[in-house]
Design a protein that fits this description.
By secondary structure, this protein is α/β, with parallel strands linked by helices. It has an eight-stranded mixed beta sheet with strand order 3-2-1-4-5-6-7-8, with helices on both faces. It is built from ten helices and eight strands. The protein has two domains: about 160 residues, NAD(P)-binding Rossmann-like Domain (Rossmann fold, 3-Layer(aba) Sandwich); about 90 residues, ProC C-terminal domain-like (ProC C-terminal domain-like fold), CATH 1.10.3730.10. The chain is elongated.
Length: about 260
């Protein structure tokens, strides 16, 4: 990206803020001198050359772009005047209009990265307010391309839905992996063998889907058509309510996302 900018991350001492900062530096879209991060109590020993502060307004004043990386329940007590600058939120549930009104700007972007940002494999949906400029959008794309893959979506409702679908990130595959591993151990496999077997299955699958840009449905169908052991397992899982359980879980996450914005 040709545009240089100074980024301030409120909550930069936290896991997600730190992951985004690290990914941005690694990708070369920022130099450490252009990065400011805030912390609550103890200054972290990370990102040499970056500016660390416990004063969020001081961070905002020295930054061109302000990122809010705090828990939604902590946001009401956050006092920052953005003075018309671009504000990027990574908080679930908080609406564009609310963020703009509270922080004194009409240039606001809502995003929802996930835990895989730490390894530059996050999927990040985002939406910008009508007053956000094309330069603002380019900055958002650059930051979240550095974290993995990004998509601008059409509505805030899409962001709320994706909070559950992708914002939960590795949790859903990990849930499946945990169930598989516990069953393997119950069968009699050694725990370290079960862990390596299950983890390799999931990471290998993810890599194949990524490299081939494959449809998950096509992958499942291929195994069903083969009529082997995998087909037997898939059909049994589905009869036990696998698809319905996933749908109910995503619906619950969507409802929770809406509720978090109203708390």
């Amino acid at each position: 990206m040709g545009t240089s900018f100074k980024l301030g991350i409120v909550g930069g001492a936290g896991w997600l803020g730190g992951a985004i900062a690290g990914a941005s530096l690694e990708a070369g879209i920022l130099h450490a001198a252009d990065l400011a991060l805030s912390y609550r109590s103890v200054k972290p020993d990370r990102f040499p050359g970056a500016f660390w502060t416990d004063d969020n307004q001081a961070l905002a004043d020295r930054s061109d772009v302000i990122m809010l990386s705090v828990r939604p329940q902590d946001w009401p007590s956050l006092s920052i005047d953005a003075k018309g600058k671009l504000v990027i939120s990574v908080m679930a549930g908080i609406r564009l209009a609310e963020i703009g009104e509270k922080h004194g700007t009409r240039r606001v972007v809502r995003t929802l990265p996930n835990a895989a940002a730490e390894v530059a494999k996050s999927y990040t949906p985002w939406i910008a307010s009508s007053d956000a400029t094309e330069t603002d959008r380019a900055i958002v794309r650059a930051i979240f391309d550095a974290c993995g893959v990004q998509d601008e979506v059409a509505t805030e409702r899409d962001i709320d839905y994706l909070t559950g679908l992708t914002g939960s990130g590795p949790a859903f595959p990990a849930l499946l992996a945990d169930a598989m591993m516990r069953e393997a151990i119950a069968f009699g496999l050694a725990p370290d063998v079960a862990r390596r077997a299950v983890n390799t299955v999931l990471t290998g699958t993810g890599r194949l889907l990524e490299l081939n840009d494959a449809s998950p449905a096509d992958t499942v169908k291929a195994f069903l058509d083969y009529r082997g052991t995998t087909a037997a397992a898939i059909e049994t899982m589905r009869k036990a309510g696998f698809d319905e359980a996933v749908a109910k879980g995503l619906a619950a996450a969507f409802e929770k996302s809406i509720a978090m914005g109203k708390a």
